[in-house]
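Figure 2 data, in text form.
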Amino acid sequence: MSRIGNSPIVVGDNVKVSLKGDIITVVGPKATLERKIHPKIDVEINDKIINVKRQDEAKESKSLHGLFRMLISNMVVGVDQGFTKILEVKGTGYKFELKGDKIGFSLGFSHPCEMELPKGISAEINKTNNMLTLTSADKEALGDFAAKIKKLRPVEPYKGKGIFYQGQVIRRKAGKAAGK
């Protein structure tokens, strides 16, 4: 029995939810999001409460039950409040640059790296703290894009240089001099 899947989703006053066939649409002040619902999952919309139910007790249905409840909940929160990810960069000469709809990275490579901002994601750069703030209504797209940025220069464990999430604990290793 899924505890997450059984809890209802409360919809705010400025959010509208509609279900047409197997596509759920959530409209709010920040954005409009759509998602296709799996055939083994049923969604009921009653006034300002959404209930997610599974059709049978199969293992796959049980796992999809909690998943789709959280996906719909994230859609409701995203169109109303939005989501934010903050990335930091540490290292000599490492920095972020905003160039229109592209983000430029100086990460110690022989060439500068650039990534285009996906649709629906906005970025701000704090140059004093070397921080990149990404904001979006779609939590899934935001997390995917932040992970792609982090993958450009993962944090190395000896000096702690690289790109990481704000508040992420970086496990540092002692160098070979510590073994002597």
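Caption note: The chain has three helices and 13 strands.
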